[in-house]
Design a protein that fits this description.
By secondary structure, the chain is an alpha/beta fold. 39% of the residues lie in helices and 17% in strands. A hairpin with a 2-residue loop joins β11 (308-315) and β12. α4 (104-120) runs parallel beside α5 (139-155) and α16 (433-440) crosses α18. The longest helix is centred in the N-terminal third of the chain and has 17 residues, at 104-120. It is elongated. It binds hexanoyl-coenzyme A (HXC). The site of hexanoyl-coenzyme A (HXC) has 16 residues, from α5 and β6.
Amino acid sequence: MTQAEKIKKLNEIKQEAYLGGGQKRIDAQHKKGKLTARERIELLLDEGSFNETDLFVRHQSYNFDLEEQRFYTDGVITGTGSIDGRTVCVFSQDFTILGGSLAEYHAKKVCKIMDFAMKMGVPVIGINDSGGARIQEGVISLGGYADIFLRNTLLSGVIPQISAIVGPCAGGAVYSPAITDFVFMVDKVSYMFVTGPNVVKTVTHEEVSFDDLGGARTHAVKSGVSHFTADNEAECFQSIRKLVSYIPLNNMDSAPFTEYKGGEKDLEFLNTYLPDNPNKPYDVKEVIEALLDEDTFFEVHKEYAENLVVGFGRIEGRSIGIVANQPLVLAGVLDLNSSIKGARFVRFCDAFNIPLLTIEDVPGFLPGTDQEWRGVIRHGAKLLYAFCEATVPKVTVILRKAYGGAYDVMNSKHVRGDINLAWPSAEIAVMGAQGAAEIIFKKEIDAAEDKVQALKDKVDEFTEKFANPYLAAERGFIDDIIEPKDTRKKLIYYFGIAENKVDSNPKKKHGNIPL
Ligand code: HXC
């Protein structure tokens, strides 16, 4: 064979490989409203940046006529590329090849690209669209999954791991995305469940649709399994690109910095933004947007446990993570789901050197049997643990309520808040004035002729004495009380000087977070 013929042969093999399971199956994929594995990679990465590896891999199985279906790639496309010029590793399951099912060589490829990502210190992004374990390869497929789960765990906290679910994801297969840092789902395209609707019907007699059981909305709103929901695949991959712009490549890298081109922001309106009545709600996202660089707030878990808002943003170009109570929902109380949501986010930021801004207006933990019986103590402790453990720069701004245990939890000075600021409207107390007056002045109120007036007087007395930031500031629990309009300037300054912060935890194998 001449050199030219050898090159021709190479290109023929590649062309065959690029067709995956063939044009008919590609058309079927499109007909379902889904993109192919290669189209997805194109949407995810910078144009022309993809370098494929292991294109020539094929399965070595001869069960059930599999030898007649030895497609190149073995149903998963792997390689490297870039997002905004920064390197990432990718694997994308090809549903046109044996339903994207996972078997020995498919798993080996996924593991190989994960190991490579780890060595290179770059994020790994998995695009999942698979019928699960390749039935013809039996237990070998299960072993392949476990090999991936192990790597997901070992890589956790070393390089960011991101999962896009763009097809079915069932059985034990859901546990790989679940271990990764962020899960993206697409409405009406993605499904995740441990057992599908048919099994559910047999076992529990419940009738449930694919969507209700494990669709994108279910996991965004009810279970919290997914962090981001997109209306279509293009939006999903755009969203992943955006997420990557906020996070470092690995745990030794610092959070990305982009040049801030905006001017000084006039935030005079913040001085009169909070309602005079402390029981009136407001939208904390407006405060977040005001404090951050224009249009940089990128919310995580937007539809889950909305009483706590978490997400990424930029302060004069510096990437930070934000955790904020949301008075618009349940008056901003902390409950079980919001504690879990907050804890996971804080731990991600801490693992990847992303400074944390806590914005606080919290009346406490949600009372009641439902919360207690479902373990609000254990789950609330997760958020406390996460803040205590975090050694990244940590700044807190108390806007209004900081009551009870929730005051301690929300990155108080006592749990190593580096700079804790308060607005003059802050109320830092064991509990709200009404509840406090009812308890400590019970006898006086019961003895009074006009009980309503007596209670009101005592509430006023308590409010005057304790519902302010000055008692906390007297003891240094608050570093400064500032006018709301100056908050952004202070944040720019303090996050700036915290750039080289050094703090550490005692040496240990690992802590025992109350899971
Ligand atoms: C081998 C599979 C496959 C599988 C699908 N295919 N799933 N081949 N192993 N697990 C093949 C089909 O034979 C078909 O081949 C092609 O992929 C497309 O499948 P369709 O059924 O035509 O597609 P669709 O109608 O869209 O349905 C998709 C599906 C369905 C819902 C995923 O295929 C399905 O239910 N598959 C089985 C799912 C399953 O039970 N997996 C095992 C789960 S247990 P052709 O040649 O026609 O293109 C598991 C354990 C993991 O995963 C444990 C980890 C610890």
